[in-house]
Amino acid sequence: MKSIASTFFTSIIVSLVAPIFAILNAQSLEGIYETESFLYMKSAFVEFFKHDGKYYAYAIANTDGSSAQKDKHNPNPALRDRSDKGVVFLYDLTQTSPDNYRDGKAYNFYDGRTYYVKISQKPNGDLEFYSSLYKDGIIGKSFLWKRIDKDTLDKYLEAKKLKEPNFHQVLESISQINPPPRKKIKLN
After folding, report:
1. pTM of this structure
2. Which residues contact 77 (CB under 8 A, 6 or more apart)?
3. How far is CA 40 from the centre of its chain?
4. DSSP 8
5. CA separation for the pair 53, 144 (Å, rounded)
6. Tens digit of pLDDT per residue, the chain (188 long)?
7. Which of 33, 115, 138, 147 is the most exposed place for a label (fewest CB within 10 A)?
């Protein structure tokens, strides 16, 4: 009888304490990451930040040292002259558990489309970044984004003679987020 009571008491304590440890051990999404290249999309250093309770990201520099490009595929002709660096491209991401984020959207400078995003953060801080054409995630692609420290980024920028974007201007770019209505794609 004593061991049953002891087991019961232990399970109650674990069930109460485990969520607290999970929260304390959770990593912050905020920080700098190196994205994964894919097809014609270059790898870049990006920074996540929290603003008004949601998470956003902007690109800092391409990892190959190539220069920023114009947003030539933007559906809004007034924005086609802006740079693809220092501009918020990922927005409205919401934390749903200590290491999971959902309901975000990412604008792709390479094709002018907006994709749905969900992110899972690994114990080492890296991100599994999943983007999809559809909100339910039926068709999409996963990428691994590696967390890097600020010193690594600073050394890279110094070696390439690049400057970090002005964060005040990054915040101002949030006001440019106004995605056009999606075209419905028929699946046969």
Report:
1. 0.78
2. none
3. 19
4. H
5. 24
6. 555 545 444 444 444 444 443 433 447 899 999 998 888 778 899 999 999 999 999 999 999 888 889 999 999 999 999 999 999 999 999 999 999 999 999 999 989 999 999 999 999 999 999 999 988 888 899 999 999 999 999 998 999 888 899 999 999 999 888 654 445 555 55
7. 138
The residue to which tokens 């905020």 are assigned: 30
Nearest to 129 by CA among 178, 93, 153: 93
- What are the helix and strand counts (H, E) for the chain? 3, 8
Beta bridge partners of 185: none
Structure tokens at 160: 């390439």
From the list 183, 175, 43, 33, the residue with the least C-alpha distance to 113 is 183
